[in-house]
Amino acid sequence: MNPKTIIEPFKIKSVEPIRFTTREEREKILIEAGYNPFMIHADDVLIDLLTDSGTSAMSSKQWAAIMEGDEAYAGSKSFYRFEDAVKKITHMKYIIPTHQGRAAEKILFSIVGGPGKYFPNNTHFDTTRANIEFTGAEADDFLTEVGKHPEQRADFKGNMDIEKLESFIKEKGVENIPLCMITVTNNSGGGQPVSMQNIRDVKNLCNKYGIPLFIDACRFAENAYFIKLREKGYENKTPLEIAQEMFSYADGVTMSAKKDALVNIGGFLAMNDQGLAMKCRNLLIVTEGFPTYGGLAGRDLEAVAQGLTEVLDEHYLQYRLRSVEYLGEKLVAEGVPIIEPPGGHAIYIDAKRFVPHIKADKFPGQSIVCELYLEGGIRAVEIGSVMFGKYDKNNKLIPPPMELVRLAIPRRVYTQSHIDFLIEIIIEVFRNRNKLKGYKIVYEAPILRHFTARFEPV
Ligand code: P71
């Protein structure tokens, strides 16, 4: 027999109760939070889909590894276990632990960035862009055209546009491009994968001009499994072999271990260039700690090492991608507009098509986010005009190209019945979509306003 149902490939040893609230309670909570989910206490949330970052459930083997943590300041045993685990996958020569992804970015770009420099990527994640711009350099996106259209289905919507990238290199000059990046999967574009062919093509182009290639590897295992499922020639390879090939085209890696290393904190930088690694380690000592712990405890390094082996398990990856796809399928069947096909770590609702009567300056994504909380205690996040909107000289909103609501799925945390419940709630909100109202901002901070902004319905 070949059963169709893909089950959670684990049983549950330790549980954490979730707190149920009534609609009346949620109405009060939402008012107190200024209609901003970032301001809601996590205890008032039933299903928390704010992020898949640092929210994974660790395995019993990871918890056991934590007890093995060696807290020596220098040369800890746990560092060498961590280093071996990262080397096995990336084959990079120099492995530098950091407390999370943005710390790796901060160190790298402080060294290679600066005014007059340009950094291409498929799509820079917010923290990467911020760390590049903070040095005075420019962050540029070269996503393939199909990746910009939520309703168009394609296998590898995270790919880079090679032709545009080559014209850019010629225009800006090789000497002004210290490195090129690829983000796998492409979080800002819907968690869409990048094909092996595209990574290879970008590498060949970079080689032609002598530009190093770095991979933002947050979700490398999910990307590897998409390659196995969708790219010819990879169907019989293991996720580890695919990941190794992906990294074989890279000269360096930045990683937030809070995603595909299945831990609650951690990250690293890895590279082959000895001179660059020395500079990174020197800066690491100033900002993060000694090079054998880099802002982490020995036990954290153990948990990363163990997580990196578990994440490449085929049963895990099959369950992971399937559970996100299952959510997407059920929503599409009911006509709910989402970015298609589903990505690896999240479903992105297309708010423009969900509530076309709410214009960008009334924050359509925020309206859906608030309704999901009121209806079912679900916490999602707006990725649209609240997060990325800018103002022109007359204080008029300049909206970003897409208005999205992200439902990020924490790893190994929720079961299929949680997802079924979620589907019910989203469909109910969708049926009542004509009743949804817009919002206005009544308080906003000068930067990163989405974290603390306060709203009122209009
Ligand atoms: C996500 C996050 C976490 C996050 C970050 C900022 C605001 C809200 C939530 C983090 C990423 C990422 C990619 C591709 C680097 C980082 C930074 N994502 N690259 O999606 O997705 O890693 O959080 O460990 O510093 O919710 P870090």
Summing up helix and strand content along with how strands pair, one would put the structural category as: alpha/beta
CATH superfamily of the largest domain: Type I PLP-dependent aspartate aminotransferase-like (Major domain)
Query: How many helical elements?
Result: 16
| CATH topology label of the largest domain | Aspartate Aminotransferase, domain 2
Q: Name the overall outline.
A: globular
Question: How would you characterize this protein structure?
Answer:
- This protein has 458 residues and is α/β, with parallel strands linked by helices.
- The chain folds into two domains: 23-52 and 314-457, Aspartate Aminotransferase, domain 1, CATH 3.90.1150; 60-310, Type I PLP-dependent aspartate aminotransferase-like (Major domain) (Aspartate Aminotransferase, domain 2).
- The chain is built from 16 helices and 16 strands.
- The protein has helices spanning 23-32, 60-67, 77-90, 101-112, 126-134, 162-172, 196-209, 220-230, 239-248, 274-287, 298-310, 314-333, 351-354, 364-376, 385-388, 416-431, and strands at 47-48, 94-98, 118-121, 138-141, 180-183, 213-216, 252-256, 267-271, 346-350, 378-379, 381-383, 390-391, 397-398, 404-408, 439-443, 454-457.
- A five-stranded mixed beta sheet has the order 2-8-7-6-5, with helices on both faces.
- Helix 5 links the parallel strand 3 and strand 4.
- The termini are far apart.
- The chain binds ligand P71.
- Ligand P71 is lined by residues 51, 53, 100-102, 125-128, 183, 187, 216, 218, 256, 258, 267.
